[in-house]
Amino acid sequence: MTGCASEMDRAAFAAMPEVDRIVPNAAKLLPATWGGFPNHRPARRHARAFVGVQNGCDHSCTFCAIPLGRGPSRSDPIGQVVARIAELVEDGAQEVVLTGVDLTSYADGLGALVETILTDVPRLPRLRLSSLDTIEIDDRLFELVTSEPRVMPHLHLSLQSGDDLILKRMKRRHSRREAVAMVERLKARREIVIGADLIAGFPTETDEAAANTLEILADCDIVHAHIFPFSPRDRTPAAKMPQVPPGVIRERAARLREAAARRRAAWLPTLVGSDQPIVIEKPGDRGHTPGFAEVRLPQPMSTIGDIATVRITAAADDHLIGIPA
């Protein structure tokens, strides 16, 4: 067994008769752990290739157990990452997603990594970034995200709250003003689609604080929202703070989801009539635009994992309808 749960409560899992041994998180990707099983094997005929470049975290957000389960931040060397992506592209990958627990803390600078990938792997058509910490988007990364067409115009931000006092109690390193200002800067340079993680019902959250988080959906023009009802994690400071009643948490999460759904429903029709390059996903009749809007097709087309241009004909519910352009 491996993973954060077994790392944090090793004795309980080791006592289970089904568990032969516990593999630490730090060792689970090493070939030697699995008797020489190859590490980071390219997985093709998927829509996109996910490449982990960073793990662990040096920050101690009060709600998060990741530092306990995964340890301090550590990054793969740039040369290793570039070689891995070059192999994936050689195998046919059209879109690569860089992932990490705290991606913007990449040791050599995420901007430097992105620039090197784009330079050294010129045949890679699309590079996408997973969740980013707004306070760590430096000038180099900002320039690439806002000017390089091969970097997809879709950023998912780790916001967590829209209220300054709650952000402090979470030990987040950005303020509401800084988050909004970063989004305004980004969108002033390029039509970037914004997603975000938001937590409903963090301990001590008042109605006013919850309203501030609700309002940040509009203030940051968020159309891809991941809403998480707060749940305490053992051995984290937030678990010891005064808790919001479960029913209130559920109600606040529902309001956030409903508001986010309305924003998404208003955004999708703005794409009708446009031609969009999508990466074909299983079973071949759907894909996502550069801004990560889901597109469904009347019938399968092209090969899974390839890029095809489609004309958007309609918006329905939470997705788009398209036909071959």
**Mean of pLDDT:** 93
One letter per element, helices H and strands E, the order comes to HHEHEHEHEHEHHEHEHEEEEE
Distance between the termini: 48 Å
Number of helices: 10
Strand content range: 15-25%
Give the total of beta strands: 12
Multimeric organization: single chain
Query: Helix content range of the residues, please?
Result: 25-40%
Class by SSE composition: alpha/beta
Neighbour order of strands in the largest sheet: 8-9-10-12-11
Shape: globular
The parts where pLDDT drops under 50 for at least 5 residues are 39-44
Radius of gyration from the alpha-carbon trace, in angstroms: 21 Å
Biggest beta sheet summary: 5 strands, mixed, barrel
Describe the model.
The chain is an alpha/beta fold and 325 residues long. It has helices at residues 4-8, 10-14, 66-70, 78-90, 110-120, 139-147, 164-170, 176-189, 207-219, 246-267, and strands at 49-55, 74-75, 95-100, 126-129, 154-160, 193-200, 222-229, 275-281, 286-288, 294-296, 307-316, 319-324. The strands form 3 sheets. Strands 8-9-10-12-11 form a 5-stranded mixed β-barrel. Strand 6, helix 9 and strand 7 (222-229) form a beta-alpha-beta unit. The radius of gyration is 21 Å and the shape is globular. Residues 39-44 have low confidence and may be disordered.
Give the gist of this structure.
By secondary structure, the protein is α/β, with parallel strands linked by helices.
Strand and helix layout:
Layout lengths: L3 H5 L1 H5 L34 E7 L10 H5 L3 E2 L2 H13 L4 E6 L9 H11 L5 E4 L9 H9 L6 E7 L3 H7 L5 H14 L3 E8 L6 H13 L2 E8 L16 H22 L7 E7 L4 E3 L5 E3 L10 E10 L2 E6 L1
Parallel strand pairs: 1-3, 3-4, 5-6, 6-7, 10-12
Antiparallel strand pairs: 1-2, 8-9, 8-11, 9-10, 11-12
Helix pairs in contact: 4-5, 5-6, 9-10
